[in-house]
User: Fold this.
Amino acid sequence: MRFAAPRRRQAPESVVPMINVVFLLLIFFMMSATIMPAPPFDLTLPQTQSQGDVTGDLTLYLSADGSAAFDGLLGDAAWEGLAARATDAPLTIRADAGLATSALAQTLARLAEIGQAEVELVIRNP
Assistant:
């Protein structure tokens, strides 16, 4: 009696190419993402209709009550850190929308005293 030869099983599809694609996508998104540190306190930026680009790498955060934060330093330590660095680079200010105009004016005057020449104020579009 002759039996039919058993069918040969196909080798399962390899998942290695899919894993390679996933890792390549992961590397792409990690390299192209802009990683920005979280602000030291919650901010609601003021609104505007105009639009522009922020060029400064250094950021000064101002809360609604006038507290300052810079490079992980809070309060007077933030101002000491600002005074200790070079002032030729533009400084970006991220101020809360609830910050009083007089407090912002005092901050700008204090920045002028330490020699900061260029300042950018960050706002959001509605």
User: Anything to note?
Assistant: The radius of gyration is 27 Å. The chain has three helices and five strands. The domain at 58-121 is CATH 3.30.420.270 (Nucleotidyltransferase; domain 5).
